[in-house]
Amino acid sequence: MDYMIGVDIGTTSVKTVLYDTDGKMQGYSNNLYPLYQDVPDMAEEDPEEIFSAIIDGLTTVMRKADLKNGTLHGVSFSAAMHSLILLDENHQPLTRAITWADNRAVQYADELKENGVGKQLYEKTGTPIHPMTPLSKLIWLRNEQPDLFKQARWFVGIKEYVIYKLFGVLQEDYSIANATGLFNIFKMDWDDQALQVAGITRDQLPKLVDTTDQISGMKADYAGVIGMDPNTPFVMGASDGPLANLGVDAIDPGVVAVTIGTSGAVRVVTDKPKIDPKGRVFCYYLSEGRWVVGGPVNNGGIVFRWVRDQLFAPEKITAEQMKVDSYDLLTEIASKIPAGSDGLIFHPFLGGERAPIWDANARGSFFGLTRTHSRAHMVRAALEGIVYNLYTVMLALEEVVGKPSSIQATGGFARSALWRQMLADIFEQDVTIPESPEGTALGAATLGMYSLGLIDDLAQVKNFIGVANVHHPNPDTFEAYRTLVPIYIRLSRQLQSEYKNIAEFQRKHPQQTTQKK
């Protein structure tokens, strides 16, 4: 049996999956690490904890491979976008990994939007202006921590740090670079204006390579621990969003991938870069001739977790005692409430928001509450609010790339029949759920197989995906959703003028707790 490993470096865990060359899973490891949130708006991770999780994951799945009767052809990476680590001249971290969820650069992102420079940069980089980006983080660090900023010799993301630790080479793939806000998607190089705005030079950044680029010669100590031949080729891979599209076979024109995990996204693949005149969607590189256009949202499954923990704590305890999934219990409660939650609307902006409003100050709200509404209404409204927001991303995407021909949905939410049906009903379109667990890791492995010549076209990923389930929209829900979605959108616009005010109040009066999640 021949093997390929896909490694997905996520926000709270690294998933390492051993596949055979038919795309079948032969081994799996999920290694968690904490997200540090010591002060308001912080969201950091320890790069050494992540690196250890990767070593553990590779070691675990290598034990599943029968290398006496087979060959490990390679390893390919996916990684979360927008992370930033400052390194000294010896490549030692001066900071933790500042993740996409960190909002401390909000003031500087707002200034870029207000002075018009942000629009100029977006039109060249395809990356919306937001505190998530390394561009905004660099401006923030330069202004708020100048001594630390001056100490830095290199500015990298988590994947680049891992590659350097393993191989002693500092390089960055086009897809990850594309998401920094520093990369010109039309020149396929670092953008001079963006570098000037950030206050850095190109020799402080890694060498740029394609997503299919290979590297080998792992340091012997790590190879020995993992149990892997040090000459095993590692494929650079891409960022997690584009690879999620690949992993669910949403790479043909018009095929949209909707993902809801902790966060969420709506994405479609095009054959060339596309920019939204209104700046609402991103454009990220996947591979030659394939670009992913779409919008990410901060608030997916994390909102459902908040509902469970804050509004349904007794039910959570009951579920644990009954040894049933607490989320299944909540969706069962929500299913008793009619579509539209009897006029209760929830804006799910518990952690600011990216697409389509790109406002780190956005805050959540229930609208339409009456004495007749119950907690059951609130959980259903929360689930609907997440999908309403994804639908508004879809509307923005349609203006750029046209109406979708089909929708492929994936992520943790896909386990819920209620949520899958909501997606079909609100989008008023058939929704297909591919049977491809860990689609992002599968996307990484597929790109790796393509790089190594094991397959001759990325489209062969369709052979790796099992039987799909299709959910059809229910016309009985159309009237409610067609009435409520426009109200949801108008409210978003009206509330946006107050988001900054309430966010500033909260920053001045922070809760007297620190969080480590």
Which SSEs are present, and which pair or pack?
Blueprint (H helix, E strand, L loop, with lengths): L1 E8 L3 E8 L4 E8 L3 E2 L6 E2 L1 H16 L8 E9 L5 E3 L9 E2 L7 H9 L2 H9 L8 H11 L1 H6 L2 E3 L1 H10 L3 E3 H5 L4 E2 L4 E2 L1 H7 L8 E3 L4 E2 L4 H7 L7 E6 H8 L7 E6 L3 E7 L11 E6 L2 E8 L3 H11 L1 H10 L3 H9 L10 E3 L17 E3 L7 H27 L4 E5 L6 H11 L3 E5 L3 H13 L14 E6 L6 H31 L6 E2 L1
Parallel strand pairs: 1-6, 6-15, 10-13, 16-22, 22-23
Antiparallel strand pairs: 1-2, 2-3, 4-25, 5-8, 7-9, 11-12, 14-15, 16-17, 17-19, 18-19, 20-21, 23-24
Helix pairs in contact: 2-4, 4-8, 10-16, 11-14, 12-13, 13-14, 14-15
- Rg result: 22 Å
Number of helices in the DSSP assignment: 17
Q: What CATH architecture label of the largest domain applies?
A: 2-Layer Sandwich
Strand content: 15-25%
CATH superfamily of the largest domain, by name, is ATPase, nucleotide binding domain
Oligomer: single chain
Number of strands: 25
CATH fold annotation of the largest domain? Nucleotidyltransferase, domain 5
How far apart are the termini? 39 Å
Shape: globular
